[in-house]
Design goal:
This protein is mostly helical and 164 residues long. The chain has ten helices and no strands. The chain has two domains: 71 residues; 79 residues, no CATH class.
């Protein structure tokens, strides 16, 4: 399997109705506010993993705002680690929260995307995921080569995995 423009075109089109149409609107709101609030945290959390709701609800409004403000204003290399200070936010959820805020720079790391990368021979380690910064770099290169944005690449990787 080769992840190129044809792959992305084919599989991103099969992503279907999985994408919540509200994500772009939530992203605009996050950029305007400069942080998450509990409502936007729970909305993106519900999109990424409905099971996460009870964990995300444990965060106070003050913590959500302070931690996400710090993450959004931090250097790229530490944003992912900082937002994981929120209760119920691991690597995959952190990537989704950052992607909703800045889809041009961040992308979602999850089991489906990693499965597609493994099948393409781009990530051989079956026990560990790449670090988030390494993963984003890999996805940026793939997106550039495929002449698409990070969000479209993520949709293609996710859809390929779901169908296989």
């Amino acid at each position: 399997m080769r992840i190129d423009g044809a792959f992305v075109d084919k599989w991103a089109a099969k992503y279907g109705d999985e994408e919540d149409a509200r994500l772009p609107e939530v992203g605009r709101k996050l950029r305007e506010m400069g942080c998450y609030n509990k409502a936007t945290l729970e909305e993106v959390g519900q999109w990424k993993s409905p099971r996460s709701r009870s964990y995300l609800e444990r965060n106070s409004e003050a913590d959500v705002k302070a931690i996400s403000t710090a993450a959004f204003n931090a250097p790229f290399a530490v944003q992912h680690r900082l937002i994981q200070a929120l209760h119920g936010v691991g690597s995959a959820m952190a990537s989704a929260l950052l992607m909703a805020w800045d889809p041009n720079t961040h992308t979602v790391i999850d089991v489906r995307a990693i499965e597609a990368l493994r099948e393409a021979g781009l990530w051989a380690d079956k026990k560990h995921w790449p670090g988030y910064i390494e993963y984003v770099g890999m996805c940026q290169r793939l997106a550039t080569d495929a002449e698409c944005d990070l969000r479209t690449l993520d949709r293609a990787l996710w859809a390929w995995s779901k169908h296989h």
